[in-house]
Amino acid sequence: TNWNILYKYKTERTYIPVIVVEKLLKLIGKDWQFVKDNIDEIKFNSGFPFKVLGTKLEVDFNTKEGAKIIAALLGDGYNKSYNLGVGYVNKNPVLRKEFLNNLTKLFKCIELRDYSKTCDGKTLQLPIFFSYVFEKAGVPCGRKVLINPGAPEWLLRTGRIEVICAYLQQIFDDEGHVSAEKRMIDLPQSVDVSNGKRVPKQLIDITNLLNRLTIKINNPYVVRNYIVKEGNKAYKRSKFVLTISNYLELKKFKEQVGFLSQHKQERLDKIVSTPCLIQRKNKQIEKDVLKVCKKFQSQNRAITSLLLAKELEVGERYAQKLLKRLTITG
Questions:
Q1: For the chain, which terminus, N or C, has the lower number of CB atoms within 10 Å?
Q2: What value does the mean pLDDT take over residues 219-248?
Q3: What is the pTM of this model?
């Protein structure tokens, strides 16, 4: 079949599928740069909402659009995971449209043909050709929970703060949660630990990127260990979470990063609009904690970190520390 395709290409100038090109490259010992240097035209199936305007494939990912595309694929996206090719999955239509807009800004050789059909569902499936481009840009192929990818090296080295902020916004839009009650942002990620303990590289890199913005966080920690069965095999997984619970750090996050997701941004606005009393001296804090505890006892209510956090207007993790301190000091 492959030889028939090549014969038709030679005699009728038909198109060669990407999968056949990939096999040919392996056969002659060349990489995709060879294709870029010798390409005549790219054509996508009619099912994809793209129209090719040219063959200029060299793109600069060190931009806000490039950072957001890479973050989206490392967040709710995938690259050759479960043999699905490459794509982005998100129920939020605003984030799906943002993904497509950034894609067309990044690849100036294509334009969107039909916007509405692609954005009706939650999945944006891209032509397999993009898989090779994104892999070179820092999105490895495979299931993220197994290969444990981090942020691309070029992003970790960039001096452009706006690019870092764009990357972080997309990651937190896709994977993050905002709790107005707990007064915190958390970013969970699971990783396979069947062959030994390890921490998600993405959370480590995000911690470093936030530090560059002088945003302090609670270092990633394990919240759950569990088993996943696939066929006759069982895999060990650990779920880690990175949290931002300090009021001043949440305020800095809002000012420098923020959310495109409306409901997440509204929750963050609610937290920041109510200043947290974390600047009090230790003795005053202990007095306030003791006062709240006595109030709960008089009402026969259980003393929990969540209730204490609400009363004192602090984050739940900070409330846990206060309760622990109170227990130790008696």
A1: C
A2: 92
A3: 0.73
